[in-house]
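Dear Dr. H.,

I hope your travels went smoothly. While you were away I took the liberty of generating a structure for the chain from your last submission, since the lab meeting agenda had it listed for discussion. I wanted you to have the full record in hand beforehand rather than looking at slides cold. The sequence, exactly as received, is reproduced here:
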Amino acid sequence: RQAYKVEDEMRAVRRMAYLSIATSLATIVLKFGAYFLTGSVSLWSDALESLVNLAAGLVALGALMVAEQPADDRHAYGHDKAEYFSSGVEGALILVAAVSMVWSAVHRLIDPAPLARLGPCLVVAFLAGAANFMTARIMLKVARQHDSITIEADAKHLLTDVWTSVGIIGGLLVVMAMPQWAILDPLMAIAVGV
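The corresponding predicted structure, in token form, is as follows:
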């Protein structure tokens, strides 16, 4: 009976990793689409963050699969520490993405480019942010129920992405209303990177 309970818990946690991966794939398509239509470097930084979310979800899934393995001769207490490794990898991925975002934004400051089609693309960015928010809330609930640091880290990362998306959307709404404030676009990308 205990074995069934453990298997159910592992299945529930694994489903959250799959949910994270599926949401990341959807938001990658939405955010990169918005970037390509607008040319907004802040939307590009938001899309890049979705790539990190996908990589983090894949690493989380791998770590969970390793953590599920029973104790053996080399791991007398099991493989649970794999979940901590996943959290560390996610942190490193965030750092790489941040450097890329700042680099691109500095180039845009040096070589400004006009933005196009902001209205519809901001709706798309909002939908992507809403998907991340709903996914993160579900993941946090399951992470707490099953004490999974991997799912919790992935969910908190998605929530961070939601807040950066909100900031970018807000800033681009200002740019849409006042085009003379177009410098906000690369400045927001730098802020996301920081």
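Two observations you may find useful: The mean pLDDT is 85. The two ends are 49 Å apart (CA to CA).

With kind regards,
E. W.
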